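ASSEMBLY PREDICTION REQUEST
Request ID: AP-0331
Submitted by: J.K., bench scientist
Number of chains: two
Total residues: 710
Priority: normal
Notes: Please return the full assembly, not individual chains.
Input sequences:
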Amino acid sequence: MAKETAPAAEGKVQVNRREFLNLAWLASLGFLTVNVAGITYLFAMPRFEEGEFGGLYTVGSASELPEINAAPQNHPKVKLWISNTDKGVTALYKVCTHLGCLYNWSDQDEIFACPCHGSQFSLDGEFIQGPAPRSLDRFVLRAVDPETNQVLAQADNGEPLQLPDNPNAVIQVDTGQRIQGQAHA
Amino acid sequence: MLRNANLQDLRKKIGGMIDQRVRAITAGLSLNELRALVRGEPPTEKPNPRYKVHTTSFLFHIRPRYYERGSTIFAHTFRLGFFTSFFFFVEVITGLILMVYYTPSPSEAYNSILKLMTNVPFGQMLRDIHRLGAEGMVIFTTLHMLRTFFTGSYKKERSFTWLTGVALLGITLFLSFSGYLLPWDQLAYWAVTIGTSMAEAAPVFGNEVNLLMRGSPDIAANGLLRFYLLHVVLMPFAAILVISIHYYKVSREHGISLPAKYIEGDVAPGVAKEAKTRIDFLPDLLTHEVFLTALGLLALVLGVTVFGYHAPLENIADPQVTPLDTKAPWYFWWLQGMLKLGDKSLMGIVLPTIIVAILVGVPYIDRNPHRSLYKRPLAVSLGLVAVLALIVLSYMGLPQYGIKTSAATRIVQDLAPQEGAGPVHLIPYNQLQSGVYEVNQSPDRNLCPEVDYGCPELESVFGSYTERVNNAINVGDLPAANAVMLIEDWQQDLKKVTFRIIWEEDEQSKTYERHLYLHRERGAE
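STATUS: Completed
Returned structure:
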């Protein structure tokens, strides 16, 4: 490229060998920096084991789930509420979408209510009222056949999981995949 | 032998040896010169050894040789930059001492703080100073920035210095914030949960940033260790680096800016010349710094003793229970206020990014060459608007603003907060007389005739309880309310206090109650 244009005629100084090599060293330093940044990211990013919050968590078999429209199941170790409605099973993240407080199930009113700022949510996690900007966050849920390890049903986008007929199906929650709840108008 | 010795020669020889040693240590200042410095006399030798040390000594070469007289006027700088760095050194030193007793693990952290406060001589005092110094550093950094803005000192050759200053504001805020979590109490845990939840609002990298900082989806052992390392290693290093760059610019390149009145408009030649006379570092600036340091240390010590500033410590962190009225550290209230105004990603990420961009860009956006307040009305009024906005937003960030709490919860929370101390905690133990105190039923005075001198504190708490419940009844928040304060003997030296409010809502009877237990030896909470 450089040789095709008129050399030095426009006062341009051509890249000489030393300059080229020095620039190459500099560029390699740039690559090194990017590499180090990438390595640091991979090093510092937490990895999750099965059963731990952030990894794959087994709730139990389908028959152990709460009855339809009954009080939800609390899983304090992994910050989960498992609720069962006509629409299916949902795994709700225990943290209020407003400012990160932990909400509770109120048996009397049959709603989730946040003690901090009074946001309320229905059993399937839909926003009812309060300062929260969106419905509750959910996790990806799936039902697995315990014998064949075959995935019988999976809810990828946080929608309620339709239970398969197999009562022994193992219900697993991928607590690393949190789907944000729908924002309300 | 002795008779032959020439004593004068010997004295001269020894004197010369001592002088040589002293000069080697002081980078060229003789004993006589040191004495002249302390006495405030002119230099004893030529060339002036007080300037020479600035090239031969490392510690002196990073200090200024002189400042111009006009720039050292107190009402021009208020010594804000000095005190910001003073607080930083206080933080480094007290922080290093506190590390002796601190263990960064969820099972140990809270206990190590308790032990530090109760079982280590001067432990509580050092912790209080560390906390007060942190607040001071945040306040003084902000004030320093405002001063620089209003005196127009960020222009031309000082624009890069302003940029490093903006970086230092961010570093200071993050230093303070990362230290917040370390005591591992409810205050720390939930304030940091809320603070990091704000980062989560960022669209693409929010979740990643959060995972990197917390080390897990919620704050646990990994998160505590990471915040600890950020607080004691990474951020202090960053601060030292950027402070050095910032300070070197001031001390070695452009000095402190002269007030506009000496360089703009009609300035009498004599006045301008007088303003530019030099005040040498040795001895005047140095002695002034020693004086300011003493003043700062005095203020810190008086603050944590006479004025009773204490670093708060609430109950041990419980990731399963969020206390009422949880809020971010006060220097992030403006952000929380903004988050209440609208969409989380717009208010939490887009607007703050724009604000930072504007702060960084101030010297390049503002091309007005004048520095006097009167000659840049637009910049000054925008600055004032920004300050007002910051204050209003901070107010809006308070949990009391814009968040509906039921009247009963609010009343009880204000009297007896779930965390920290409220009016109820200030009632002396002997005044906690067992009994049922019912609003509008019990007498409002002479509550405890058996106690000598009565019980004024208990009466005042019950009085404000009565007043607030009645207000709520009148406004219609608590229809047909029945409010009770119950004090029971629970164990030896332990009283149980119950607040219970029963009211009608939607033709149902609703109850709110809270219990707290007060021990005779509870001390000042």
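REVIEWER COMMENTS: The helical segments of chain A are 17-44.
SIGN-OFF: pending second reviewer
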